[in-house]
Amino acid sequence: MSAISASLADSRIMLRRNFKHILRNPVTIFNGAVMPVVVMLLFVYVLGNAFSVGERYIEYVTPGMILLAITYGLSGTAVSVNSDMTKGIINRFKVMNVSRGAVLNGHVAATMLGTSIAITAIIGVAFGLGFRSSATAGDWLGAIGIIAATALAAAWLTVALGMAAKTPESAGMAIVPLILLPFLSSAIVPAAKMGQGVRQFAQYQPFTPIIESVRGLLAGTPSGGYAAAALAWCAGIALVGYLWSRATLSKRA
Amino acid sequence: MATVKPHPVTGGTADAAGSSPAALAVPAAMRSSAIAVSGLRKAYGDKIVLDGIDLDVQAGTVFSLLGPNGAGKTTTVNVLTTLIKADSGTVRVAGHDVATEARHVRAAIGVTGQFAAVDDLLTGEENLQLMADLHHLRVGEGRRVVISLLERFDLAESAQKLVSTYSGGMRRKLDLAMTLVTRPQIIFLDEPTTGLDPRSRRTMWDIVRELVADGVTIFLTTQYLEEADQLADQIAVLDQGHLVAQGTPGELKRQVPGSHVQFRFTDVAALDAAARILPGSTRDDEALTLRVPGNGGTKPLRDLLDRLDEHSIEAEDLSVHTPDLDDVFLALTGHPSTEAIAP
Q1: Is the sign of the CA dihedral B120, B166, B115, B207 positive or negative?
Q2: A93 and chain B in contact, CB less than 8 A
Q3: Which of A68, A101, A104, A10 has the alpha carbon at shortest distance from A187?
Q4: Which of A17, A88, A95 is facing B109, going by the closest CB pair?
Q5: Residue A97 is nearest to which of B103, B121, B178, comparing CB atoms?
Q6: Going from the N-terminus, what domains does chain B have, and what CATH number goes with each?
Q7: pTM of the model
């Protein structure tokens, strides 16, 4: 009991520290909050009209942009986790009896907090650009649940990648595939319109069921199959990220 | 520990300032070991980093582990501070086994590592507050400790600035201040002055002396011989994973050939006479000096003076030269201290 409350207290202290880091790093703020909005404006105003997606493009692309808002903020987390590991401060925390894992929990929580701000901004801009949803309150809750699960899974995987990298620079690079992955899903255009090979990849990669379930919920036409697949992917990725980062934490002095 | 330990920052008890002579007056037998290490071994793969280390550090003293880069100093500190596990041997710190009672050990120690473990994106004050929070100090007490540490370490003016703007010396001071927030009984300083300018180094030395005066035990690693000489009560010389010597700075110096007594005379006649009766001596006719090998012990010195007296030779003056720790290192290890050892 007291171990859990100590861990929560330490995690909260770490969250405050990490969130200050995010707020004080202009590059992180730009990547995490401004870039997704810029990309969204690009796709909706510049490219979107050239795509035929079977509905208004803003309605189609908003769930995809929510996903980009999750992934764009991750490089800052990876670099920040790695800096903690490589610049010696982790040893200070270890020697202080700080709860095992509070450092990691703090990074995950700060990333989630940053991501939720970026997603709020994206949804606000989407409504400004004419996004309309026929989702019920229940649908919205379901969508928020899947988005939160995705953000959690992505955050844990990012923490693990940041822990495993040798330098902050390579930690930043390790996240690039994760940032590109939504483009190879049905986030921007339907997978069915992609070339041979890419299409199969897009159909089976985790972001597609995540996108499709959120898209269904926001359109008021939820699909149980996509939602179950999305949550299963999120649980699996979060578990791998969690176990991997804990293992790295015990291994590295 | 039965002793009442004043807070190293605020002083705590009224007699804190005068506690240093009192601590020295405690008979050696009554002192307790702050750190006791026996048979410590650690290898990374085929490379043996520590090969059977035995150490005993008395509470309230400064112990210096001296050695060149790559000797195993940081590995020793990492084992003693619970960061890595030894392959074999026993290590007790503050009376607790580092392997089985790591939590108790951690509660008693503070570590300031080789690279300042400070948070660049926080201000100096926020860094200290972070330590106070993680140590679960009550809000009011945390504030008091943070403010007094900022003042003590001369960081109050820069307290609101991000640490990324601090100089190297300020970062080290902040690093040590962060270590002190937790009021450790035993502080490990791993090369605390490496890379600092001479003025910052002296400041650091003064801080270490103040801590010892407050009753804190210091385990200091350094590759600077002068630093160990200045600060340490006991020095252990570490070379390629072995302790090659242990003792007080004076004892170490006396182990080394090269000690000599130097006489200076008023004229060549006296120098000639002295050189005749003191075989093995080296003369310098220009300076009118004569060097006689031997250590600075009082008995041999008295014998020397007696012999000069027997022959009615008057020396203008006399000085005893002991080698510095650089000579010690060369003599003990067969290589200069500054030479990095290839693994």
Answers
A1: negative
A2: yes
A3: A68
A4: A95
A5: B103
A6: 14-18+33-254 (3.40.50.300), 260-321 (3.30.70)
A7: 0.77
Smallest CA–CA distance, residue A20 to chain B, in Å, is 8
pLDDT, one tens digit per residue, over B85-118 is 999 999 999 999 999 999 999 999 999 877 768 9
Domain ranges across chain A: 2-251
The answer to whether B111 faces chain A, any CB pair under 8 Å, is yes
| A235, A150 Cβ separation under 8 angstroms | no
Chains A and B form CB pairs within 8 A to the count of 57
Of A151, A146, A148, A152, the C-alpha closest to A209 is: A146
Q: How far is CA B124 from CA A17, A162, B150, B188, B281, in A?
A: 13, 26, 8, 21, 59
Is the interface score ipTM higher than 0.95?
A: no
Kindly determine whether residue B134 and residue A98, on different chains, have CB atoms separated by under 8 Å.
Answer: yes
Read off the pLDDT band of B258 (50, 70, 90).
low
Which residues have CB under 8 Å from A239's CB, separation 6+?
none
Tokens found for residue A86: 């490589």
Residues 22-41 of B with CB under 8 A from A: none
